[in-house]
Predict the structure of Alpha-ketoglutarate-dependent dioxygenase AlkB.
Amino acid sequence: MSTLDLFEGLQTPTQAIESLAQQACVLRGFALPFVEALLPALDSICAAAPFRHMVTPGGFSMSVALTNCGRLGWTSDRSGYRYSAIDPTTEQPWPALPTSFLALATAAADAAGFPDFVPDACLINRYQPGARMSLHQDKDERDYAWPIISVSLGIPATFLFGGHHRADKAQRVPLFHGDVVVWGGEDRLRYHGVAPIREALHSVLGAQRINLTFRKAG
Ligand code: SIN
Ligand code: FE2
């Protein structure tokens, strides 16, 4: 039995699927059974690869702090956005993708209709009140055939899920601790973002929202 099998019973019932588009949905509470395993793993990752505010190619410091785990990590600096196997802060490889992270990502992808998804990158975003993420497309990955799996933990957020043009009107989707958003296929390149986070306190995570974004980048 592989360690992944240990998480097999943890899938939540599928009736809590909310459709956002043809191939995009919210799996309400899907991550809740995994949280107890995720949080200590998250602590170890953050100890080895601390959260930092990266600079955009335009020269602005991002309001969201980030780190990564997995073979590839998403980075930004004055010369652009890219995936790198080396953490530019520690100059070490990113921490490995924990089994609990992998189990959650593959189970969520399966539940949303994307079988065989094996992520090689997990971007970990930390939002403190006031932090936001402007509308963007995820397009630094090599193969858009794979979906994006986005896990929300901690205080609530309003996720903005737009169209294929920046100016398209975006749906405002409230996201809570344990929710997972999946988008792929024809919806893979939709613009999306996060409205400024409101002051709040989560019983376990305090005044922050943690987002785990799983991708097959390489
Ligand atoms: C992202 O698009 O990288 C993050 C989305 C989120 O925080 O929900
Ligand atoms: Fe994104």
